[in-house]
Amino acid sequence: MKKRIAVLPGDGIGKEVAKGAIEVLQAVGERFGHQFYFQYGMIGGEAIDTLGTPLPDETIELCKQSDAVLLGAVGGPKWEKKPAHLRSEQGLLRIRKELGLYANVRPTSYYPSLADASPLRKEVIEGVEMVMVRELSGGIYFGKPSERIQKNGEDGVVDTLYYQRAEIERVVRLAFELAVERKGKVTSIDKANVLESSRMWREVAEVISKDYPDVELEHMLVDNAAMQMIKNPKQFDVVVTENMFGDILSDEASVLTGSLGMLPSASLSERGPYLYEPIHGSAPDIKGKGSANPIAMILSAAMMLRQSFGMNEEADAIEQAVNQVLDAGYRTKDIMTFGKKLVTTDEMVGEIKATL
Ligand code: ATP
Ligand code: MG
């Protein structure tokens, strides 16, 4: 097969891990006889510095004309305090809007060989297999107004949480679709005891669940969910929630398997192309040190092969290679424990390619 892949390496370790994922994809292409065409676009801080905008039009066009998009990470302290139109995260929010990405899907799986890298006891995390579906296009991160206001002569501030019913429906439906292929359970997370938006969310989840008689639907309040995620993560199969709750809970879920550096994600739209990125950020603290874990990015590439190109065997091959390399004891610094072999980003990529 021939596929066009837009690569947006971004900033910080985004560049370092994207390079690794491309090498792994090239190796897969050679082994299975596919031609992957990689075309590079700028986003985030690098784009601000060179072109004066966090998301140039060329990048948007490139993405729209590709079969899939691979994104490293964007941002860094250098761009955090700039005016809004020059902030690196604006690039990320806008590409999501431009591509109509409405759901971020984040699988979290237990790696037996990394059990000792998790702060949680093995009995608690053993066998965890969950996927978090986070609404990505609405909610409080996009609502207007979002500004400082004066009220009764006092300084104040407002952020707005807005959802259209249809936005809730499509993301909840996606969660049910995933559950059908998995263990058949959806946990919908909200704050329905306080928020009107959550009450509508619950209502919609109930309606959609009627189309999926074999899937069990459970509602859980977000505060309880934050606790359950640590106390008994095995109870979850598919978790679905709105934008901000999902942002927070998916970072929490990342701790279960040991490191942010292990977790991939897919962002889906109605028509495609889909975007794949590790859940971690640009990690300015370790930039340029060669210690970034490339596995989250490499597993994101595997998700791309499976989800966007239907290349299941190829995706399996990457996932198996990652498992074998971990089983053989190779570790980047973030997952290093006593007695294992410490390797750099490039060495980890090299081991995975060699195993492939
Ligand atoms: P963002 O706002 O972009 O989500 P963040 O503030 O959540 O970023 P990250 O950049 O994800 O932060 O980094 C959080 C911590 O995890 C940092 O200490 C970083 O070094 C570490 N980290 C993140 N990704 C990796 C990785 N791939 N390998 C090793 N360590 C990582
Ligand atoms: Mg973060």
Description:
InterPro entries: IsoCit/isopropylmalate_DH_CS (IPR019818), IsoPropMal-DH-like_dom (IPR024084), Isopropylmalate_DH (IPR004429). Its EC number is 1.1.1.85. The protein is α/β, with parallel strands linked by helices and 356 residues long. It has two domains: 1-108 and 258-356, Isopropylmalate Dehydrogenase, CATH 3.40.718.10; 119-255, Isopropylmalate Dehydrogenase (3-Layer(aba) Sandwich), CATH 3.40.718.10. The chain is built from 13 helices and 14 strands. The protein has helices at 13-32, 45-51, 57-64, 77-80, 88-98, 122-125, 165-181, 196-209, 222-231, 243-254, 295-309, 312-327, 345-355; strands at residues 2-10, 35-40, 68-73, 103-109, 129-135, 143-151, 154-160, 185-190, 216-221, 238-241, 264-268, 274-278, 330-331, 341-342. It has a ten-stranded mixed beta sheet, with helices on both faces. The chain has a two-stranded antiparallel sheet with strand order 6-7. Strand 1 (2-10), helix 1 and strand 2 (35-40) form a beta-alpha-beta unit. Helix 11 runs antiparallel to helix 12 (312-327). Magnesium ion (MG) binds at residues 251, 281.
Strand-helix topology:
Layout: E1 2-10, H1 13-32, E2 35-40, H2 45-51, H3 57-64, E3 68-73, H4 77-80, H5 88-98, E4 103-109, H6 122-125, E5 129-135, E6 143-151, E7 154-160, H7 165-181, E8 185-190, H8 196-209, E9 216-221, H9 222-231, E10 238-241, H10 243-254, E11 264-268, E12 274-278, H11 295-309, H12 312-327, E13 330-331, E14 341-342, H13 345-355
Parallel strand pairs: 1-2, 1-3, 3-12, 5-10, 8-9, 8-10, 13-14
Antiparallel strand pairs: 4-5, 4-11, 6-7, 11-12
Helix pairs in contact: 1-11, 1-13, 7-8, 9-10, 11-12, 12-13
The structure holds adenosine-5'-triphosphate and magnesium ion (MG).
